[in-house]
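#struct-help
A.M.: can someone run this one for me? Single chain, 209 residues.
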Amino acid sequence: MARVYGLEVADTGMERVARWMISAQLALCAIGILAAIVSVCRHLIIRHAFNAWVDSSGQLEGHKYDLRSDLAFAVHTVFNLLLPLALIMAVRNAIRSNDKKVMSVVCMFEGVCAGVSLLAAMYLATLIPWLWTLRASVQDSDCMGVRDVQQCLNDKRFLTTTASSVLAFTTLAQLVLSLCQIGAYATGSASAQRAHQSLMQGTMFTGLP
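D.P.: on it. Structure tokens below:
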């Protein structure tokens, strides 16, 4: 009897399926952690730089980062961290109990998640040229008529150099992570489908009813 991440699996073929399935969920956890780190760094730096420039220049007042955007960012980040953990728990419990229904749900859910991740990757790919357009528009703005011209120029310089570079790098990093996420979701979905088919044919993970 083989052991897969602490679970005893009786069938050799099912052992490979279980290993691929749990490995996919662990990969999603790692990707979620890396994406959260990248997102936090981007949000904090861009929030500070953009709001400082808006305050000193008086432009784009209605587009400042506020509590609502912070809450939306926090909810999105926590969800991306908790979802892979929930999937790991569901998959491990399904393997222990040879649960065909859970395997079917995991297969469909991770297939949908792979599609959503593909849309996210496409969005990020289109976002990169837009970011440079936004940077150019900020560079073309002037600080004439503001209370503190030097502060406005300093904030503008920081936003169009350091902050813009961070934004471009983190967006590219998120694009790569989204592509990895697609692969992990697709692997998990395919493994869950194979597990469901095997369970329907009477092959068990644990040999228990």
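A.M.: thanks! The radius of gyration is 23 Å.
D.P.: also worth noting: The mean pLDDT is 88.
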